[in-house]
Amino acid sequence: MRTYVRFFAIWYVLLVTAVSISPLLPQWFVAQAQSALPELPSAYIDTTLVTPTGNFLSVPPGGDFQEALNEANPGDVITLAAGATYTGPFTLPNKPGAGWIYIESSAYSNLPPPGTRVAPALAGFMPKIIAPGVRAIGTYPGAHHYRFIGIEFAPAPGSVNSSFSLIRLGTGPICSPTTSSLTAATSTGTRPRGAGAGS
Length: 199
Hints:
This protein is α/β, with parallel strands linked by helices. The chain contains 3 helices and 9 strands, in the order H-H-E-H-E-E-E-E-E-E-E-E. It has helices spanning 2-21, 24-35, 65-71; strands at residues 56-59, 77-80, 85-87, 90-92, 101-105, 128-131, 137-139, 146-149, 152-155. It has a 4-stranded parallel β-sheet with strand order 1-2-5-8, with helices on one face. Residues 13-22 and 174-199 have low confidence and may be disordered.
């Protein structure tokens, strides 16, 4: 009988203690979670896709993609030939203004609509920018507002990328932390098909 009473008393004390501290537990966990939340971005950039208002610059297979990047202005569209390979490294210049420069496939209209994953079978509709042991794409300090739509990035066959990056934004000797506003959209994108002014 005494053993039973002691056992009951122990369980009663444990139950009362648990009930008394249970309201404190969620608040403690909430406080810990709030203190561990990451800081919100200090700057924002509007990434809404708009209809291009500039010229179309076409780079054929074997053409000078870097020259097209240098000549392009905000609102322009640089078209790379579907299925063609362009060997980097290429560097995105810093352009004045806040308009987007689009780099897209010549077979853009053959790619799936926005929000659809691109399948390997569609690789033939995409130009390929390859990295021959170094980055495929880099940036000059302050570069911003570039979009890659329907473009494949890959290391060159048999090459070893010593920097472990195909696209380097905002770091390294060519780049700067100020390029954090640069957006590279490598999906099929959401630009209105067939829009934009001719060159």
